[in-house]
Each structure stands twice: as structure tokens, then as C-alpha cells.
Amino acid sequence: MVKNIAVMASGGGSNFENLAVKSDFLNMKIKVLIIDSPEIYAAERAERLKIPCRIVNRQDFKSKREFEAGIMSALADFEIDYIVLAGFMRILSADFINCYENKIINLHPSLLPAFKGKNGIEDAFNYGVKVTGVTVHFVDAGIDTGKIIDQTAVIIEDGDTLATLEEKIHQTEYELYPAALKKVFDGRV
Ligand code: GAR
């Protein structure tokens, strides 16, 4: 059965577009892109891909609770099987997560449990580790702590700069995220 997906993003949206392009292979349909601020590039990608985009602007809400109610109300217009986070840079509350238990999936640019948080690539680079990577995991109430679905290691070589590492991480994400989602949709995790 085709899985209906909501993608949530806060930035450029390259992973969103990569998933959209691979939708048929994944037997999924992205019903909506939800973004948390206006004028981010992901919205332009959605327009080009003819995927509905809803802006739930964090600045329009007094509290996180109301903001999340806004997300839920946007989601309620669609029949969604999974929420796929693709560069969504906000921490969701336990209340929100409990409403979608094991239905929210996140992409994180490090080999968890190392380098949790907002700057996974830079933190790994600055620490000087020689191996970092990409993780796809279910979202639980902790920060980047949910059950791991899949991971790929990325070697940091002597000549690498932050920019070359970012590029390697993104290329790895474009392979890993679709493969990990396929595992979930096929019931292999
Ligand atoms: C990706 O590298 C993703 O792993 C990261 O944001 C980037 C989004 O890129 N997510 C996190 O750091 C979540 N903590 P994109 O907007 O081009 O897809």
C-alpha cells in the first residue's frame, strides 16, 4: 500500500526533493511539506514539484504548544501515515510525539549517539574524529535518542574541510534516507 507522508523542513530542502524524486521507488506519496518559517528554499522546491506546502510560522505562535497545535491542524487536512523530518530544526514536545508514536522519522548528520543536536557535521569536524556519518532514527521524547533505523559511516580524510565534509554527508544522506524509509515501509524494522 502506498504510504502517505508529510515532510517537515526548516531550510534548503535538498533531502525533501531527493525523497520526492524517489517517491515511486519508495511506494510513497508526499502529501504535504510543512515548513516552520516563510521564505525558505524548500518552499520553492515544493512549488516546482507540485507538492502542497503549508507554512506554520513559529513566529506567529505565542508558545510551542500553540505552534505544535498549528502543525497538527495542518496535518489533519491530509491522511498521513508517517511524518518525515528533513532538516526540521525544532525539538518536538513529548505530547506531540506521543500523538504519532513510531510514526515520526528523523535524519541526523552524525553517527548517533555521537554529536547530537543542531550542528552534527560541524561538531564532529571540530572535535577531530576520523569517522562520522549519517543516522536515520525514529523520534522519541529525547533529542536524537530514538531507535536507530540505519546508519552509514563517513570517513573524514586529512584534506577534508568543513565544506567537503558537508558535501560527503549530504551525498550519503541522499542514499541512506530513502533506503531507511523503504525498510520502515516494508516492515523490516
Ligand atoms: C541535513 O544535513 C540533515 O541531516 C540536517 O539538516 C540538513 C538539511 O539539509 N538535520 C539536522 O541537523 C537535524 N538535527 P536539507 O535542508 O538540504 O535537506
From TrEMBL:
It catalyses: N(1)-(5-phospho-beta-D-ribosyl)glycinamide + (6R)-10-formyltetrahydrofolate = N(2)-formyl-N(1)-(5-phospho-beta-D-ribosyl)glycinamide + (6S)-5,6,7,8-tetrahydrofolate + H(+). SUPFAM superfamilies: Formyltransferase (SSF53328). Signal peptide: none annotated. The active site is at 108 (proton donor). (6R)-10-formyltetrahydrofolate binds at residues 65, 89-92, 106. PROSITE patterns: GART. InterPro entries: Formyl_transf_N, Formyl_transf_N_sf, GART, GART_AS. N(1)-(5-phospho-beta-D-ribosyl)glycinamide binds at residues 13-15. Pathway: Purine metabolism; IMP biosynthesis via de novo pathway; N(2)-formyl-N(1)-(5-phospho-D-ribosyl)glycinamide from N(1)-(5-phospho-D-ribosyl)glycinamide (10-formyl THF route): step 1/1. Keywords: Purine biosynthesis, Transferase. One of its GO terms (molecular function) is phosphoribosylglycinamide formyltransferase activity. The record marks 144 as: Raises pKa of active site His. The keyword Transport does not apply. Gene3D superfamilies: Formyl transferase, N-terminal domain (3.40.50.170). Residues 3-181 form the Formyl transferase N-terminal domain. Its EC number is 2.1.2.2. Belongs to the GART family. Catalyzes the transfer of a formyl group from 10-formyltetrahydrofolate to 5-phospho-ribosyl-glycinamide (GAR), producing 5-phospho-ribosyl-N-formylglycinamide (FGAR) and tetrahydrofolate. NCBIfam families: PurN (TIGR00639). HAMAP family: PurN. This is Phosphoribosylglycinamide formyltransferase. It comes from Jeotgalicoccus aerolatus.
